[in-house]
């Protein structure tokens, strides 16, 4: 079951004792007190009369990057008892803190509040007498969580803590993070003077005047310092003035020499065995009567270790085989992909081949149709050719007849051409005579000097009949590159405007831009502009026509 699938119940501390919690299923409980969230993962079983508490110690590398949600250690372990896994809210204070010890803040001791919540949950689940209240509560932890388990068992009186290699004092490890983020600005001596009962198991026992029930496992091969610390703890406890004189051993210690360092000594199945026999273990007679049983357990442990060794080897072989299988699977998948790809290519080729076959069939049909059409065309052409040949034969006959006629006409034309050539020769002789006569007349006419000067102006003189002004106008026209006749006519009132307009339009009358005199065209005249050379050419042509 994932975290998202687990139900979360939120309530205040007053409602915990009367709340009806679900049975035989895992759920989260969230109790908020003074803006601090106390979070628990709980699984209550209707067939169990014990309540097992599992606090969180030092977080592992796998959980250091996920600090925005609660951390429940050992939640995958199976127990027949009802279980409560505790998240330490101290871990939310700063990411540098890897072990919170449930210390909380200067003004709020989280472990004390957690103990109160657990007692209210137990009061909700079980009906206690005064003598056996909380006697069915077991608290398990190792190293740092073992410290938390012992401290909780002091506050939850009559409960039992099962611990492995417990720390007995906080500042044996991880001093910097706690000093920087919890006890800011205080020295270790000041912290011990004010908060010693939070940091040391012996000081809390003295404060509560209560020795808890502790069943602990210790590997004495860890180091000498740890052994000295634990021996000092036992001496301090035995010298307390309020220690009971009953024939009851409240702190049971089992020594081992597994040489594992400060690590968890018990396996889950061993812890389940201890929990099942916790009341027997707490009895002194148990150790006198169960020596053989303990030897059997040791033998079973040795066999289990052998089985574990074999199992590890088998797991390694299985892992190796799984890797090979994965490699074969990968190669097989690659071959399958290649085969699928080739099948797709074959299908594509088949489609293309089918299309080509269809195109060939279509082309064959078109070729047959084309051949049929060609045959029909050839047949029709043969018939047409036969008709044309018959027509040609008929026309050749007609042509022969016409050729005979044309021969006759050619003879007649030759005779006529000869007659025309004779006439043309006579005309040419006559023209030569007339030309000689005209040259004589021109020479006579141009003989006088005055006539030679006036000759270019004859046309204008004849048209205007005002000799002085016409000559003046022609000279003006001849001496200027561009000339505006309309402007000139308006300026010289002695020239008849209407008469010039009639005589010079449309062949000779024009309007040009007087560039030399910087004049604009007269807007009243609406004729087509032409250059001077064109006008003079037209004047000369008219003059020549007039002469001849």
TrEMBL record:
It comes from the Archaea. Keywords: Coiled coil. The keyword Coiled coil applies. Residues 516-548 are annotated as: Disordered. Residues 290-423 form a coiled coil. This is Uncharacterized protein. It comes from Methanosphaera cuniculi. The lineage of its organism: Archaea, Methanobacteriati, Methanobacteriota, Methanomada group, Methanobacteria.
């Amino acid at each position: 079951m994932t975290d998202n699938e687990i139900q979360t119940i939120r309530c205040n501390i007053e409602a915990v004792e009367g709340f009806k919690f679900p049975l035989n299923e895992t759920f989260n409980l969230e109790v908020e007190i003074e803006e601090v969230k106390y979070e628990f993962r709980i699984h209550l079983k209707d067939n169990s009369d014990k309540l097992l508490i599992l606090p969180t110690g030092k977080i592992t590398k796998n959980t250091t990057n996920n600090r925005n949600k609660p951390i429940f250690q050992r939640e995958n372990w199976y127990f027949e008892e009802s279980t409560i896994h505790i998240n330490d809210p101290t871990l939310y204070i700063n990411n540098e803190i890897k072990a919170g010890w449930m210390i909380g803040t200067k003004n709020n001791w989280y472990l004390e509040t957690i103990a109160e919540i657990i007692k209210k949950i137990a009061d909700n689940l079980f009906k206690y007498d005064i003598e056996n209240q909380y006697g069915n509560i077991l608290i398990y932890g190792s190293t740092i969580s073992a410290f938390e388990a012992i401290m909780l068992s002091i506050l939850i009186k009559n409960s039992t803590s099962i611990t492995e290699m417990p720390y007995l004092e906080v500042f044996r490890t991880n001093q910097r993070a706690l000093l920087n983020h919890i006890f800011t600005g205080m020295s270790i001596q000041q912290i011990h003077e004010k908060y010693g009962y939070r940091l040391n198991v012996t000081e809390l026992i003295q404060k509560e005047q209560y020795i808890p029930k502790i069943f602990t496992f210790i590997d004495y091969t860890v180091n000498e310092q740890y052994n000295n610390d634990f021996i000092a703890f036992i001496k301090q406890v035995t010298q307390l003035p309020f220690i009971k004189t009953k024939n009851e051993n409240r702190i049971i210690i089992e020594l081992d020499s597994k040489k594992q360092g400060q690590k968890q000594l018990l396996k889950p199945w061993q812890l389940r065995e201890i929990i099942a026999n916790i009341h027997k273990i707490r009895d002194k007679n148990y150790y006198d009567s169960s020596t053989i049983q303990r030897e059997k357990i040791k033998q079973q442990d040795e066999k289990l270790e052998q089985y574990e060794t074999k199992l590890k080897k088998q797991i390694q072989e299985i892992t190796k085989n799984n890797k090979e299988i994965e490699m074969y699977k990968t190669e097989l998948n690659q071959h399958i992909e290649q085969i699928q790809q080739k099948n797709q290519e074959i299908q594509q080729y088949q489609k293309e081949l089918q299309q080509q076959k269809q195109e060939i069939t279509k082309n064959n049909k078109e070729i047959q149709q084309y051949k049929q059409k060609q045959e029909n065309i050839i047949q029709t052409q043969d018939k047409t050719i036969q008709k044309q040949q018959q027509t040609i034969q008929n026309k050749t006959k007609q042509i022969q007849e016409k050729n005979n006629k044309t021969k006759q006409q050619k003879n007649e034309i030759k005779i006529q051409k000869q007659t025309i050539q004779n006439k043309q020769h006579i005309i040419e002789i006559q023209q030569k005579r007339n030309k000689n006569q005209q040259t004589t007349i021109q020479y006579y006419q141009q003989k006088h000097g005055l006539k030679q000067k006036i000759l270019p102006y004859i046309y204008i003189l004849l048209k205007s009949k005002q000799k002085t002004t016409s000559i003046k106008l022609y000279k003006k026209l001849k001496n200027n590159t561009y000339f505006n006749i309309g402007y000139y006519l308006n300026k010289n009132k002695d020239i008849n405007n209407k008469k010039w307009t009639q005589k010079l339009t449309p062949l000779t009358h024009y309007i040009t831009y007087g560039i030399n005199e910087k004049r604009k065209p007269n807007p009243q005249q609406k004729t087509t502009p032409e250059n001077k050379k064109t006008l003079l050419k037209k004047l000369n042509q008219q003059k020549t026509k007039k002469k001849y």
